[in-house]
Amino acid sequence: MHRFDVETLTAGRWRNGGGATREIVSWPVGAEDFLWRASIADIDRDGPFSAFPGVDRTLTLLAGDGVRLTAPGVFDRTTRAEEPLAFPGDLELSAELRGGACRVLNIMVRRGRAVARVERVTGPVVPAGGHAGVLHVLRGRWRTEAGESPLTPGRGVWWDGNDGAPGRAVVPLSPDAAALWADVVPVG
Questions:
Q1: Is 47 helix (H, G, I), strand (E, B) or coil?
Q2: How confident is the model at residue 111 (pLDDT cuts 50, 70, 90)?
Q3: Are 187 and 117 contacting, i.e. CB atoms less than 8 angstroms apart?
Q4: Nearest 5°: CA angle at 86, between 93 and 162?
Q5: Domain 2-110, CATH 2.170.150.40 — does that match?
Q6: Residue 108's beta-bridge partner residues?
Q7: Of 69, 85, 93, 168, which is least surrounded by CB within 10 A?
Q8: CA angle at 153 for the pair 140 and 61, rounded to the nearest 5°
Q9: Residue 24: pLDDT above 70?
Q10: Which PANTHER family does the record match to this protein (predicted)?
């Protein structure tokens, strides 16, 4: 498992100037065409939302009052705190902030090659063999391995399907512990 801290990830501005992205992982690492990608996005203002043809996306609100995503006559949804919102990346969406800047966990998978299930968890997470994924801590403390420092809010781990993560649980250490878990499953 690979550890990350959102605050130490490099932030890259969006081409349209509406926000910034901190990439957790793009798999395979270094490939031009990702199979799956996880990032933290800071959305600073209303405006167009980048389309990703052939990609399925899941956004989960981490901070702020949310963002309304619309494609007239096709799609109209608003993010809610810690509730994953899935949608096709092909849509030409507009983003409207609900009370100011917000931060989201963004999971993207190449349609037909992988699927992602994102959920809020409060108990142990044990990655399945051949699956990739990300666990992002929302609250409390979590343990990955004996001897490693606990994961705290804004930190987490990711793994690919070949990491040997299966059977290596990520376990809550405090009663208030909550995290987002993205389970990425290859198709075919």
A1: strand
A2: very high
A3: no
A4: 120
A5: no
A6: 37, 57
A7: 168
A8: 110
A9: yes
A10: PROTEIN VES
Class of domain 114-186: mainly beta
The per-residue pLDDT for range 51-78, each reduced to its tens digit, is 899 999 999 999 999 999 999 889 999 9
2-110 matches 114-186 in fold: yes
Domain residue extents for the chain: 2-110, 114-186
Contacts for 114 with CB less than 8 Å, ≥ 6 apart: 35, 36, 132, 184, 185, 186, 187
Q: Whole-angstrom distance between the N-terminal and C-terminal Cα of the chain?
A: 24
Is 98 within 8 Å of 61 (Cβ atoms)? Answer: no
Closest CA to 2 of 175, 142, 135: 135
Strand, helix or coil at 8?
helix
Structure tokens at 128: 């399945």
User: In 3D, which of 46, 48, 154, 63 has the Cα closest to residue 102?
Assistant: 63
In the chain, the amino acid numbered 130 is G
Confidence of residue 166 (pLDDT cuts 50, 70, 90): low
- What does pTM read for this prediction? 0.92
